[in-house]
Amino acid sequence: MKSEILAALRSADGYVSGQELCEKFGVSRTAVWKAINQLKQAGYEIEAVQNKGYHIVSSPDILSKTELESNRKTAWVGEEIYYFDSTDSTNTRAKRLAEDGSVHGTLVVADEQTGGRGRRGRAWESQKGVSIYMSLVLKPEIDPNNASMLTLITAMAVAGGIEKTTGLECKIKWPNDIVVHGKKVCGILTEMSTQMDYINYIVIGIGINVQNESFPEEIREVATSLRIESGKKQKRAAIIEAVWEEFEKYYDIYLKTEDMQGLVGEYDQKLANMNKQVRVLDPKDPYEGTARGITPKGELIVDTWEARKLVSSGEVSVRGLYGYV
């Protein structure tokens, strides 16, 4: 009930009477009072005025099931939410849930990861209380060959959600790193379970640097956070909600054709590498060229001195010729 009361307070223009809350949720005044006190103890500033009711003044940057549910406005993402103060990896949790029958749109969020992973098995720094660590379970009826493009869809959603909540301009370093002022704030890891021509499930993991005030020396030149770039603390739950609202929008467009053809133009506008010199780190044959956007299949178009080449995500890494972007 705390989630519902918090959502009601957030959606109200002014005060909400205790009686109104009792009638809306079919509970006693004592139950409402207890829920309000529990929210206050969690850090929410709620004003109570006689003959007026309750009014939420401010909320802290906290993650909890209550906070996530009270912010939720999505149609199907987060229909089931699993929140953990600490877990090994939200992707690992999400895969277990998917295998146990969790529904399409199940969302897993943690305040801390003890075994976070990035692409190619790299460790992902996962401090408590500062960043967003979350994974989404998808069970789409699509061709498995088209699933890799969901990583690009997610990148667009993260960029849009961050821009909406923080006002910071975001770019995408193909295929899925989100950069602000040339430094990385987000990584995305997509994992899939399939049978021949059928998808059992897809898990999309997202890690966003939010409140970090500094980074280890080895990544300081390429990593940043939303707090560093905006100069102020951000609310993680609001960012999470905004990302998934954007995701639902782009996912619907993607499903119409199962590719990027309806989103190529918008993705190219966000492409940090657009018309820039890049180095394609192909293990067999590294080469340099100029990035020219993406194809409807999500491949990066690279013009070299001898030919136009198409780079598939997952095969290689792409770096700016003179730095990370």
UniProtKB/TrEMBL annotation:
Top EC class, one word: ligase
Transmembrane stretches, start-end: none
Occurrences of domain BPL/LPL catalytic (ranges): 65-255
Catalytic activity: biotin + L-lysyl-[protein] + ATP = N(6)-biotinyl-L-lysyl-[protein] + AMP + diphosphate + H(+)
EC numbers: 6.3.4.15
GO molecular function, one term: biotin--[biotin carboxyl-carrier protein] ligase activity
Keywords, in A-Z order: ATP-binding, Biotin, DNA-binding, Ligase, Nucleotide-binding, Repressor, Transcription, Transcription regulation
DNA bind region: 18-37
Residue numbers binding biotin: 89-91, 113, 117-119, 184
PROSITE patterns membership: BPL_LPL_CATALYTIC
Protein family according to the UniProt entry: Belongs to the biotin--protein ligase family.
Biological function: Acts both as a biotin--[acetyl-CoA-carboxylase] ligase and a repressor.
Protein name, entry field: Bifunctional ligase/repressor BirA
UniProt organism field: Maccoyibacter intestinihominis
